[in-house]
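[job 0412] stage=complex_fold ligand=adenosine-5'-triphosphate status=START
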Amino acid sequence: MLRVSGLSVAYGGLRALDGISLEVREGEFVTIVGPNGAGKTTLLKAVSGTVAATAGRIEYQDRAIGRLPASARAGLGIAHVPEGRKVFPSLTVLENLEMGSYRAAARAGRRQTLEETFVLFPILAQRRAQLAGSLSGGEQQMLAIGRGFMARPDLLLLDEPSQGLGPRIVEQIFATIAEIRRRRRLTILLVEQRVVEALELCDRGYVLETGRVVLEGARATLLGDPRVQRAYLG
Amino acid sequence: MAVAELLQYVVTGLLVGGVYALMSIGLALIFGVMRVVNFAQGDFMMLGMYLTYYLAVAWHTDPLLGAIVVIILTLGLSLIITNVTTMVLSPMPRGIKTAYATRAFALGAVLVNEARAYAFLMALLLAAVVYAFLTRTDLGKALRAAADDPEAAAYQAIDVRRMHALAFAIGIALVAAAGGLLATYHPIEPTVAVNFIVLMFVAVVLGGLGSVPGAFAGGILIGLVQSLTLLVLPFQLQNVGVFIAFLLVLYLRPQGLFGRRLRSV
Ligand SMILES: Nc1ncnc2c1ncn2[C@@H]1O[C@H](COP(=O)(O)OP(=O)(O)OP(=O)(O)O)[C@@H](O)[C@H]1O
Ligand SMILES: [Mg+2]
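[job 0412] stage=complex_fold status=DONE, emitting structure tokens
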């Protein structure tokens, strides 16, 4: 589904990603964990096209997408739920969700996807007419995920959905991500700092540090790895 | 002062304000989406005035209809170089003579100039169409989304560069149409561009930078204040009142009448 090889990104000379290679197979749930500044967000942005790669290759559904603009990549079914949620504050909740299904392939099924989204996030149905900018942080995160779900994506990129939220909301959000996966056999690439929760959800994971992959493996392998336990699990 | 006289000024101000409102939302839309103040808006307005004028002279097109033709023309030719107009057109003021320019309805004791009334109604209609476009259509919502957060818009498959072009085209088409409407009662001369860009800019700041409903309210407010200023000051000083109102609003409400935060259309 997604294959990244030798990917490097630099911000004004400073290397943020240094020859990253990874793969996400169809239907798989892959997690990337790592400390602040490791390059997790940069990796997702390079995949969806809002950050330019200096080297490397990105293939999606067996097709090189590295030269496509971000909007065209989204059009192919890559939905990116960005760090910091980035809902459209002056649009209503409903309008935000509608924009999720802006791409031609999702537009036709909008009404049905909307109903499903409201089942996943009942709070969004209640707040449909409210401006997204007036939602609480947790609600905005649900809206951002709902907006991604509305795209009927083949590949869902989630960047730290737990950021800045209380433990109850985080639990709810992780449960919904698992539920989304049960409903649609879609492929998920999740970036997280909450290492335990994220690794427990995934099939496979990568550990990223200062722009490099330092460890990769199946869920059980990573959870059992002494380095992971020492660094992240206490 | 008689109530009727005051009412007369209020009505005149409202009518003129409607056309100001239309030209101001053009500027607000471009600013909201592209984050640039398009100072050429005044020139596009003047272009609309001249186009309407020549349509009226050459083909006897009714200027109100001319304003619609102007919309279509400018939407199509949205990237016309504006400076040409001053070189080609003589600085002699012109005006369009229509039957309704000098006629008036009587609403009780208040006289309503027909040209202004029609221009006002047309401006209102066009503003309503723009509003419906922005709030009812996918493309309009995508335009607002791109203004709110261009990066997140790209993640929804919205082509942000295309949205910029669209906002620009609509923005200048609106201001050109407003120019066409203005031409039914305002003299047409090359200096109108400079005079009106200032008014539009004030309207947009008054309304809250980049807010379309705000710019609409700002335009109406300017028309009212200009007109009411005439009660106490001579015609040449009618914009003094506008700037006093401008400073007052910014002092009391720095984010503008409809301003929430910076990014919003
Ligand atoms: N726009 C930018 N300009 C310059 N440097 C940047 C920019 N964005 C990120 N960086 C740098 O690139 C590196 C990787 O940042 P990135 O945001 O990808 O890390 P991250 O793993 O997502 O971190 P966090 O867990 O805090 O979100 C960091 O050193 C960061 O300072
Ligand atoms: Mg990050």
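DSSP finds eleven helices and ten strands in chain A.
[job 0412] exit 0
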